[in-house]
Amino acid sequence: MFCFPAMGHRHCCALGPMDPMRRSPSPCSSRPSSPRTPPCEMLGYVGIEAVLDQLKIKAMKMGFEFNIMVVGQSGLGKSTMVNTLFKSKMWKSTVQGLGTPTPQTLKLQSVTHVIEEKGVKLKLTVTDTPGFGDQINNDKCWDPILGYISEQYERYLQEEILITRQRHIPDTRVHCCIYFVPPTGHCLRPLDIEFLQRLCRTVNVVPVIARADSLTIEERETFRRRIQHNLRTHCIEVYPQKCFDEDINDRILNSKIRDRIPFAVVGADREHLVNGRCVLGRKTKWGIIEVENLAHCEFPLLRDLLIRSHLQDLKDITHNVHYENYRVCRLNESHLLPRGPGWVNLAQTPAGPLAAPQPSKACQQDQEDSKDDDEY
Amino acid sequence: MTSEVGRHLLFQSHMPTKTTCLSSQVSDDEQKQKRENIRSLTMSGHVGFESLPDQLVNRSIQQGFCFNILCVGETGIGKSTLIDTLFNTNFEDHGSSHFYPHVRLKAQTYELHESNVRLKLTIVNTVGFGDQINKEESYQPIVDYIDAQFEAYLQEELKIKRALSHYHDSRIHVCLYFISPTGHSLKTLDLLAMKSLDSKVNIIPVIAKADAISKAELQKFKIKLMSELVSNGVQIYQFPTDDETIAKINASMNGHLPFAVVGSMDEVKVGNKMVKARQYPWGVVQVENENHCDFVKLREMLICTNMEDLREQTHTRHYELYRRCKLEEMGFTDVGPENKPLSLQETYEAKRHEFYGERQRKEEEMKQMFVQRVKEKEAILKEAERELQAKFEHLKRVHQEERMKLEEKRRLLEEEIIAFSKKKATSEIYQNQPYMASGSNLKKDKDRKNSNFM
């Protein structure tokens, strides 16, 4: 696999894990016009700005796509959080019965829904990772996840290099990965650090402190600072990445967000009556924790970040940076590998069901194993 | 939420959302979703992704827009003036000469700002079109130029490390074809040119200098033109009618094609306003008066309503066609020999391997030939050396023989000298003894000996 630390440096060292050259420069005032394109003064209104409306109409007609992955140990409230985010029953909140055995391997489950609001259609795919970090030995438990993410990139790449391409390539790439940190109150655990290090190179990661209702406000703050310190020490760049801030506005906005990451969230999908209002919340003997109340938890911040303000940005970074990095690694590799086991990788991956992808290709597994063997 | 809501406002406000229990909206495309096996979900509250189109628009504003127009028409037909009028600015001043031997294309890029939209506009003009006596080569440069832009984009797309989001898109989005207002029919050159361009670019034909035709003639002219285009199978750009908001207006505009336009940047006072118009002794032709010409319609269609569609058609239809043809030409296919799907990479690798093998073979061949030549040369040289050696030996032998002969001769000579000196000694002794006996005999003997000796 390309982005494991053992091999990641070799493959991705050419351009670094994040390529800062992502977008074209920022709007009018700050960018000087190049000498070859002289700015022209128009003597009157022409109607060029109508192109924005045209863009909007087309976008609304085509609909939007968004793919989220939630990662965390069982019982941290991942399914509930997804239900709360999109205010609907994406899936039943999983409650493990006493009789059901814990899954031995990590099996990813995806579910796709189309939701519509005020004429805007959104095709939402949520991928869950039950069994993550639940085993005794959690070594390499991130493999299936990284495999799944790479598989989506691979799928897109294969579609893109066809001769006769589809008009609109279906985008199944993971745009955002929400990582649930258990509310220990101390600091990030080794599993968290390992996972975040690997994942941040291939996908946008937003860490959240799960079940934050077990921490007081002060404890949350200390925990948050410690986590931020851990992230800095291990050079883990979570979304919004500092290197992609373009202009001063972006930087100011994103610094505010970065200051509050990871958000301390609480998920709830039941409604209760509080002061005559119907709110989503968790009812306990000592009170009702309102999910959408900023004084109680930071769920609104997470929701705003993911949906209301940075959704397009998440998709852009996935497309322009992570996907391009993957593509570069992949295309470079195919030139280096002679006809051998690596050659077989170039064939189209058999389109497996999206729901439960196994550690993708058998040959890649072998290749990875053999490469690991080489190191020892 | 208003449509102006930007990221700043959203995040800085931190306002709690409405938590009323709204009834949800059901998606109406249920048939399609059943086919796709995707459930449509009803939400029990307001989530907030209706701002998605705004987020998209914001990103586009940040990136800026690109629009490229190609103007094809004879010299002096009014291309530059029309573009000036369309965008309400003075782009360039000088007219061009009629005496160019070949058709050239001249591209110029300008940056226009309107409210918060930045438009990078590229105008490509054909210089010298229709001026030559022999017009056979007139439209090929245009086709080549369009292909070159597609090629540049394709190259960028196929690069390993690419920067598509930065790339200045130079592909032609629309071609305005200027038809002379003869009032009769299309010229052959026009027909041929449009036929060769229609699969590569969106063509919008316009009747230039429409103030030269009367209204009645204009109607007949338009009908004639359209019927000629249709009967010759020229695919001009049709304004899209699939979206209800603009379907009606687009459909009605489709009926007015080709637009009869008049361009002018000069202002004339009409009534109490200054309007763009052309002043004649018999009246004033107002550019923006819909009764006088179709200029407003053209501007409306080209810029205000369909600019995005033109760009999309160029990318998804014309560019894809070019790409497919180009890649197939290079030998790539999607389907391998056993009808199994092949990837571009496989074909590329196969070809690369093939070429590599070929190169190896050629290298071997050359090596062999070189070795052969060296051997031959060596043999020749050796031969020469041997010959030389033989000659040397031969000469040496000859020399040796000569020497021996001379030695022999010398020996003989020496022997004779010895013999002679002996005889001389003996004769001197005989001479001294019997001097008295027979002097004359002896003398005769002596003479005889002497004469013998000599």
UniProtKB/TrEMBL annotation, chain A:
Single annotated GO MF: GTP binding
List where the protein spans the membrane: none
Matching Gene3D superfamilies, A to Z?
Answer: P-loop containing nucleotide triphosphate hydrolases (3.40.50.300)
- Annotated Acidic residues bias: 366-376
Name the keywords, alphabetized: Cytoplasm, Cytoskeleton, GTP-binding, Nucleotide-binding
Residue ranges the record marks as coiled coil: none
Q: What GO cellular component is one of the record's annotations? A: sperm annulus
Domain Septin-type G intervals: 62-333
Subunit relationships: Septins polymerize into heterooligomeric protein complexes that form filaments.
What name does UniProt use for this protein? Septin
Q: Which organism is it from?
A: Ailuropoda melanoleuca
Gene encoding this chain?
Answer: SEPTIN12
UniProtKB/TrEMBL annotation, chain B:
**GO molecular function annotations of the record:** GTP binding
* Residues in the signal sequence: none
Task: Region Disordered: list its residue ranges.
Answer: 434-454
Read off the Gene3D superfamilies from this record: P-loop containing nucleotide triphosphate hydrolases
Quote the Pfam families the UniProt record gives: Septin (PF00735)
Q: Which PROSITE patterns match?
A: G_SEPTIN
Q: Which CDD domains match?
A: CDC_Septin
Q: Which UniProt keywords apply?
A: Cell projection, Coiled coil, Cytoplasm, Cytoskeleton, GTP-binding, Nucleotide-binding
GO cellular component terms given for this protein: cell projection; cytoskeleton
Chain ranges of the Septin-type G domain: 63-329
Q: Coiled-coil intervals in this record?
A: 367-423
The record's subcellular location field reads: Cell projection; Cytoplasm, Cytoskeleton
Basic and acidic residues compositional bias, start-end: 442-454
Assembly and partners are described as: Septins polymerize into heterooligomeric protein complexes that form filaments.
Q: Which family does it belong to?
A: Belongs to the TRAFAC class TrmE-Era-EngA-EngB-Septin-like GTPase superfamily. Septin GTPase family.
Purpose:
Filament-forming cytoskeletal GTPase.
Please report the name of this protein according to its UniProt entry: Septin
GN (gene name): SEPTIN10
